[in-house]
Amino acid sequence: MQPFSFATTAQILCESGSAVRLAELCRERGAHRVLIVTDPGITRFGLLDAVLPGFASAGVAVAVFDQVVADPPEVIVLNAVEQARALNAELIIGFGGGSSMDVAKLVALLAHPNCQQSLKDIYGVGNARGQRLPLIQVPTTAGTGSEVTQIAIITTGETTKMGVVSPLLLPDLAVLDADLTLGLPPAVTAATGIDAMVHAIEAYTSKLKKNPLSDLLAREALRLLAANLDEAVHNGQNREARQAMLLGALLAGQAFANAPVAAVHALAYPLGGHFHIPHGLSNALVLPHVLEFNASAATELYAELAPLLLGQRLQAGNTAQLTAQFIAELAQLSPRSGLPSRLRDAQVPEAMLEQLARDAMLQQRLLVNNPRDITEADALAIYRAAY
């Protein structure tokens, strides 16, 4: 066994209906002034309506910053930090999808009274210093796993993104409440669920930091997600399926936070950067084609995952046959869930494929984890296959 280290969120609360107790959870941590970081959709759909009254009852002052957008730019982070400072916030809550949780991580860091760093100072791995405010994360989609990862991704230009990677970004508490996900549309449920599956698969095949603990988490994550995705998509009011999806996404997040993702994400990022395709859908569009490319180097690992994905539908066979079933099943997830399955169906122009391949090669921090080395020509061939 090669040496490894493993870090994750200190506490996890997995319970339907638990978000209404957020004020109590803040009081338990000694906070009297709290900022909730979220997006306009959360307030528009009333997901905070049952949560906010508890703060008045608990004597905790609360403010809501609800301007987070997908692929959040730097100005959103800075505006949220300004509101946290104006409130003298003592605790930050990220409430929403991955973008809201990522912004909340950075606010907790940059709004700490003793913070001496700017946002630009902390980009990269291990550049964040000092302390952060207490941080609670409440995911409202079962996808990113941001509630248990030490990374925040921010848009820095027209098509460019930067990451902050630091153990300081790991929250104190993750709250998994299926009630918050019951109203998610089928397409969002599917795209975020497939994103979580990709996290599990890429963690399990991660070349440099794969380890026994991440493997355990990735396997259980994929089992939970595969067993509940169809039900969550087609019967969104099924609370048990929704809770299982949240837990699966969290376990996948714990896995890839310690055994990082690879080429699926590297090829998905330019799709989001250029065309603002949601991250989960970007992953889904390239997933089967990256796995086909990787199969020669990862057949045994894909074959090990096949029973967790297919369950009793798996047909006996050798590793190559199990891998083929594994990839074929993943290729069916998008059409079965009503998502586009080709780049052309997502309005990606064929003339952009070469640019996408060049941009994908900039994601070397991800590509080094891929089980098979990938060149720009390989990336272009994968995009063409996905087109």
Short summary of the structure?
This protein is an alpha/beta fold and 387 residues long. Helix content is 50%, strand content 11%.
Task: Describe the protein in words.
The protein is 50% helix and 11% strand. It is an alpha/beta fold and 387 residues long. It folds into 2 domains: 11-179, 3-Layer(aba) Sandwich (Rossmann fold); 192-386, Dehydroquinate synthase-like, alpha domain (Up-down Bundle), CATH 1.20.1090.10. A 6-stranded parallel β-sheet has the order 1-9-6-4-2-3. A 3-stranded mixed β-sheet has the order 5-8-7. Helix 6 (186-204) runs parallel beside helix 8 (239-258), helix 6 (186-204) packs across helix 10 and helix 9 packs antiparallel against helix 10 (279-310).
Q: Any descriptors?
A:
Dehydroquinate synthase-like, alpha domain; alpha/beta; 387 residues; 2 domains; 9 strands
C-alpha-based Rg, rounded: 20 Å
The major β-sheet equals: 6 strands, parallel
Number of domains: 2
Tally of strands: 9
User: What letter string, H or E per element, gives the SSE order?
Assistant: EHEHHEHEHEEEEEHHHHHHHHH
Query: Runs with pLDDT <50, length 5+?
Result: none
Strand content: 5-15%
**First CA to last CA: what distance?**
40 Å
SS content category: alpha/beta
Q: What order do the helices and strands come in, and which of them pair?
A:
Layout (H helix, E strand, L loop, with lengths): L10 E4 L7 H7 L4 E5 L2 H5 L8 H6 L2 E5 L8 H14 L3 E6 L1 H13 L13 E2 L9 E5 L11 E5 L5 E5 L7 E4 L9 H19 L7 H23 L4 H20 L4 H13 L3 H32 L8 H19 L15 H8 L3 H4 L8 H11 L1
Parallel strand pairs: 1-9, 2-3, 2-4, 4-6, 5-8, 6-9
Antiparallel strand pairs: 7-8
Helix pairs in contact: 4-5, 6-7, 6-8, 6-10, 7-8, 7-10, 9-10, 9-12, 10-11, 10-14, 12-14
